[in-house]
Specification:
The structure is a homotrimer of 223-residue chains.
Chain A lengths: L4 H17 L5 H10 L16 H5 L7 E14 L10 E3 L3 H8 L7 E9 L13 E9 L8 E10 L4 E10 L6 E8 L7 E12 L3 E12 L3
Chain lengths: 223, 223, 223
């Protein structure tokens, strides 16, 4: 299910407090830093004068934040023959012209999508109205089918729990059971987030429907 | 207007000097760090004990750097009917074939652009020669119009003030007054930068011209 | 040649052991951290007081890792006239229809690729089977030729030395001798990596083949 970041902050803070208990008499300051959300320090040559470094690190938490665990992305491709009424994605170029001229596989077929992401496997009542959506593109880049695909998209959260976007890109290696994409940035509730989105094929129905199970974990974010 | 990073470093360095005056016997080291271009962190109440903290944090500054504040991006779309002479963008596929075959909206229409970015709203004298350009793609991913769009592009700086690129991606949610995209990386003057680019629709003229007001803020960068 | 990260980790681990010997009674904990994959930071002289520092800092290292130095990317474009048998890339839209309708340059031509990356300039015996591949897209965004191109792709490592992906995006400014793209994320052996990929045109043969020399350097990664 989709967890709110706030609950995770709680964990993160707990972690910081624990660290604080290893130190003496700096609690107030700690709170201050926490409130300001310091970023991680990197790469300075220092000596014992610099003990406070430890505290700085608390700024960037190392705890994994599962923003969206076991969430499903639905893709209903308009393939130029079926109805567009319930499709959530379409090919950028007219595939008939493209594929005919290629006499080859789906290599080069690029799809633009705006699909719902749901906590269960079932399609939502309304494909247009969901609190979490994935909006972006994928294209097939292998001659053999099933072909690998490359994804670049934004996960758009619009719920009371979370508002903001996570931006994702990477290769979906079909031969692998699970494929890790990179979360390269985020906005609003996910301000400056980075992490990994793990995809797993969950269902394929012919050419016009597939469902991906997705786990999104953040390893860096600001507070 | 477009601020140079150097002006911000100036502020940052002043900060460091101030901190140095609070410490004793670390001047040489400070100078070394300074040479590396470290910048003090904003808003920390330092005393001698915490001075080192400042130094360490300073490797990653939290001061916001407005690389491009109130800058305008111009998009003049070649729609296959108007002239290409002054167009700055074009559709990847022949839209007539695409849209006719879809009997639907602009969903799936992908545009490649190389547009000027200007400090004012007016088009520059030469569309080809400007010191800041946005080069990338966008595509519409919503059936309804005005449709959401997804952007991935590089802001290319080629002025005496700044040289280098910022790489941006994210969803342009048309329903929002302002939309935050992620700055996921940078090169040269913007080496390893990360931040947020905020878009605001500023003008739309039919199908072939729009202007976006853009603010680019960096929250992480190396010096 | 392609260096394995493991060699770098080896250094990192050696570091940790060395540090452990400098501390007293923290060995078990250290092992735990090790299990979590933390690595000591370069150039830090630790003692008991700083054990916490070690754990925290180590999450980020600033040693530069040349993941792929002097590696070559091959692109053999299927231009809809030559054979597809050995092509490694293809245009998303049928270019004849596109370019005819545009009466212009390659502006807007988008190519999907899945090309081999080799340590030498020679094409590999098998274009389909190489341990390092670049899979993604590029498109031309300038009217004049030779045109600038914009790249977004994943470098997929599948060797015994490295397994995982690096995700890259940025502008290839043809006018520059070398062009820096951003490595915005990584997976598996390159978990959470960030850095810069430097491109240099190495060979062009007409419209259907080019070879890029690529250096990939990471400035941030987790272990």
């Amino acid at each position: 299910m989709i967890k709110t970041l706030s609950s995770h902050w709680a964990i993160g803070l707990k972690w910081v407090f624990k660290t604080k208990s290893d130190e003496h008499g700096h609690i107030v300051k700690h709170k201050a830093w926490l409130a300001k959300g310091y970023v991680q320090q990197h790469g300075v040559d220092f000596d014992e004068v610099f003990a406070p470094v430890a505290r700085l690190e608390s700024v960037r938490t190392i705890l994994v934040v599962a923003v969206a665990a076991d969430i499903y992305f639905h893709d209903i491709l308009y393939d130029f023959s079926n109805s567009t009424s319930n499709s959530t994605s379409t090919v950028v170029a007219k595939p008939t012209a493209l594929l005919q001229s290629m006499n080859t596989s789906v290599l080069g077929m690029m799809v633009v999508f705006n699909g719902p992401m749901t906590e269960g496997k079932a399609l939502p009542p309304s494909l247009e109205e969901t609190t979490v959506r994935a909006q972006g593109l994928y294209f097939y880049n292998k001659k053999q089918t099933p072909a690998d695909a490359w994804f670049a998209f934004s996960v758009v959260f619009n719920s009371t729990g979370n508002r903001g976007t996570l931006n994702v890109m990477g290769e979906d290696l079909f031969s692998e059971k699970t494929r890790d994409l990179s979360v390269v940035g985020g906005t609003s509730d996910f301000f400056m987030a980075r992490g990994v989105a793990t995809l797993r094929g969950d269902a394929i129905e012919g050419f016009t429907y597939f469902r991906l199970q997705m786990d999104i974990k953040l390893y860096e974010y600001y507070v």
